[in-house]
Structure formats: C-alpha cells, structure tokens
Amino acid sequence: MTVSEFYDEIHGDYKGTLSRFLTEERMRRFALKFESDPSYDQLLDGVRAGDIDSAFRAAHTLKGVCQNLGFDWLYEISFEITEILRSGSLDVQRPLDELKTRYGVVMTAIRNMKNDENN
Amino acid sequence: MASAKEIKREKILIADDSEMNRAILADILGGDYEILEAADGAEAVKILQEQGHGISLLLLDINMPLLDGFQVLEAMNKSKLIESVPVIIISAENANVVAERAFNLGVTDYISRPFDAVIVRRRVQNTLNLYGKQKRLTELVEEQIVERQKNNAMMIVILSHIVEFRNEESGPHIQHIRIITELFLRALPSVAPQYNYTPEEISLIGTASSLHDIGKVSIPTEVLNKPGRLTPEEFSIMKTHSAIGAEMLEKLPMYKDEPLVKTAYQICRWHHERYDGRGYPDGLKGDEIPMPAQVVALADVYDALTSERVYKKAIPHEKAVEMIKNGECGSFNPILIKVLDKVSDELYEKLHNPDTSDDDEDMHKIAAEVMKQKQITASSRTLSLIERERKKFQFFAGLSDGLIFELSYTPYMITFMNDGAKRLGVKDIVLNPDKDEVFLKNCGLENIKEITRILRSTTPEKATVEYVGNTMFDGEVRKCKLIAYAMWSDDEVPELLGAVGKIYQI
To answer: Whole-model pTM?
Structure first.
C-alpha cells in the first residue's frame, strides 16, 4: 500500500500533508508511529473514569496529532469530542462510538501499510 | 570526532505533552540543533531552571498537564528568563485571547497546527537570528563598557598611587579607603534610610575616594615623610593638602562638572572636617559636611589606626573600632558610628580577603539597577553571573553529603538535583508540595510550613537560614538539617521568589 493509497483509505489529506511534510518518507514514518500514540487510550480511560480534565486533554492531544498528520476524518470526530468536553460535559457516547469506528479503520490501514513494507 | 560546529549547536527545548508532536517537530528541525524535550510544563520549568539561557529557543505548547504553557511563561517572567530565551508557542487554538495573552507574556511568535515544515524551520531560524544578533550586540556593548570602566578605574588608581608613592607609607591605603567607603555606603540605608545611594552612585563615590589625598603632591617630602611628630608649623603645611587637592580639581580645564569630579572635590576638601565642627579647612559642622566626605574621613581614620607606621605599630581591628566609637580619634556622625558597629565584622573580612570579587558584585548590582531604571533586557553578563553562582553552588554542594533542592513559589514547586528525590522518597519535581500526598507523608506538612515561615523572615541581605526537623531520609525517619539561601527579587519591595539549599542528616 502506497502512502497515497493509505491516505485515501483513511479519508486523510494526502496532498496537503505532503506539502507540509515535504517528503513521503516522513509521512509514512509518522503515520506508522501513530499506532503507538497513547492519546486515544487515554481519552477512553478518562471518559470511563469520569475524569473530565484528563479526558479533555487527551482528546485535545489526539485532535492535534491527527491534524498534524492530516488524518482529517479522525481529526473531525476528535474535534467534536474535544469541544463537548471543553464545555464541561461528559456526554460524548455517540461521537465516541464513531471515533472508535474510524480509529479502527486507521489502525487496520496502518497495519496493512506496515505489512506491505515488510514484504 | 566532534567538530567545533557540532559542539556549538544551539539548544532548542520542545515542551509538548504529545510525544508524537515533539517527534514531528524534532524531525522537521533536523540535525542542525540539539533538541531537548519536556513532556509537561513542570519538566519544562525544571530544564529552564537548570540550563537558563543555555537554551536558545523554547517551542511551547499551551495545553499541558501539571503546568500549562501560560504558567511556564509566568515562571519565565518571574526569573526574567523571558528576556533572553525567545519563546514560540505551538497552538491549534486560533482563539485571539490565547494569542494575545501569550504575546503579553513575552512570546515572540507562534506556530499553528498543523505543522508546516517550511514555516516551522523559517520561524525558528528567524527568531534565532534575531535574538542571536541582539545578543551579540549587547555583548559587544557590554564588553566595551567593562573595558572602559576598567581603564578609567586603572587610570585613577595609577594617578593616586603616584601621589601615594611619595608618601612612603602608602601600601594598600587607596584600595582600603575604597572598600571601606563602599561598604559603609551600602549599609547606610539600614541605619538611616534617607541616605539611599544607588549602586551606580556608590561605585562613583568609591572611585572618587581614591583621589582624597591628591593634594599631598604639593607637600614637601621632608614634611610628608617625617618620622615622628610634626611641629605646629609643619602640621599647618600638612593641613593644606585637602584644600589644595580640591583646588586642583576645581581648576581642571575640562570635566570639572562631571559627577565624579564634583564628588572627588567634596571628598578632597572635606575629608578632614569633624562632625563637631573642629576640623579643617572650613570648620564645617554636622550635616554641612557632605556624606561622602564624612564616610571617607572615617575610613581614613580607621585605616590609619590599623596600619603600621614608622612611628607606630598597627592597632588591631577590634581596638580601632572601640577607639573610634569612644570618640578618641575624632568626631563622627552618630549614624556612621552605628553603621561601623553593624559592618564591623564584614569590614575586617573584606580588608583581609581582598579576593572577594567586589568588582563582579558591583557590575552585577549596577547592571540590576540599570535594568530596573531603563527597562533594558537582562544582559547576558548579568545572567551568566547568576548562572555561575548557581553552578558554583551546585559544585560545592556536590562535594559534601546531602541533597540539593531548589524551591520556587511561582509556580509553587520543589526540584531536586541528582538522586535527592530518591533519598527523600519523593518525585524529582514536586508540584504544590503542600498538597502532594507522598511528599507530605515523607517530609511532613509542619516542616514545610515552618521552612516557608523562616524563609519569609529573611531579608535579601541576610538570606541564609538553618532548620532542623525529622524527615524520611534514605528509607527511614531521621533528624536532618536544612540550610537554605532565600532568593528575593530586585524589586523596590523585594518579593520572596524561592530558595536553594541542601538537606543532610545530623
């Protein structure tokens, strides 16, 4: 799977990200690194524990990371969650389910890209 | 082998709670810089405390745990580091309030998410260039000022030594007069607040004091160097030196309106006046005698008493102080007698340890004063002086047992050096120690409260405190001693910023 195909798969912004990152190599490297970014898990933990502060911070970080990587589809939903949490509400179940779905798609695509690389 | 270029790579601190974001920034900036990373605000403050203006640039995220970006900026404002370390904020917050607040706190520029490699590199490079240029210019000007001041002081010392040279007993007299004069002037406000000389004025009076005896060039050698008592006639010749010295300065073709020359005039003419009005040449009484001349008069008497002469032995320090206090050697302003009492120990210390680097101290105080008055940025010389002190402190502290800490009140946190935290069983950085459970359990709330109380009772002049208490140390509760140096701000009403110190078992 090429980097361009990967971005198509996850509804990301290939062109914009390339213009900011300058090389495909860098895009691939950091896209793969996203697999180990802890903010998604921290967000789920925060919401589960009812800890609005740490949930907000994690959502905010996740949003920032997605924005940097040009993961637009994932960015949009994490943006929505961040704003709900910022307003002081923990009522995020619906967008959180959507986030889980999209996150799953991204993770699968990352693994596919990694496997292709290894083959 | 490391090349010179590699050694001089500029250090950039990236403070962002997302490891991914730090990695992207570090990658974009590439190998041209040495990158340091902080995962939260407290860690950023700790690194800034340790490295000071060794950091060339800070890339700062606003939303971070423990301390947020604003709190880091506030700490940098308190320590004045904001004036020498440029900060670029990283933010996805496009809200104007955030940007405005950050700029008000001294931020230079911002990088918004998503990161654009070209823009990140450009902004970092521009900021570094700008600050580098300013820093080099400041250094250049400073070097020249230091050089010029040194030359000026040197010329004066040489000239006054030529005068003293004829006077076969000169020795380190001029240097002593200057040290004593400056010491007295610094201590004056604690006894009489109306005599509050600025560090610049004190330095000027100290320099002028070197010229107090220039009139002696006109005294015949037989009189000047006569072993034993002078006849009344000889004494009246000797007495002309103060008026003559003043006249020499008054008749200078240039510079006579310069503050230095005007002050030297007062000192030359009136350093043999007496507070009771029975001195010479004008018989001025009490406050008619300008304070600089009064101080030099006392310094002159003290140094004459404690120095050896052809016709007499040196009198010990304590005895000389006693004699002056009892009015056996002239009549002095009661204010100055009180100051003498206060600085007596320090006086002895300063004259017998000429090694104490007063010059640096002066430069530092003058720099601080100029900064306060003229609102210029903290010069890198001032900062490097502070840094040097800090390093010295760490070094000496490291030689002996015990653990080193630094306490700050804004933000309220304690940081421990080396393995200090481990020995107390606490974290390296303890934020809000009065609320940190582990810290309270191991070190005790009473101890913290008491130490804060003692620190508050110090003054910038008397900043060292000691405290004994029980605390967890190397795994069990032990009796320990804490020695700390309170750090006060330079403001008119000094504010307690924090303390540095060490803790050891007794």
So the answer is: 0.55
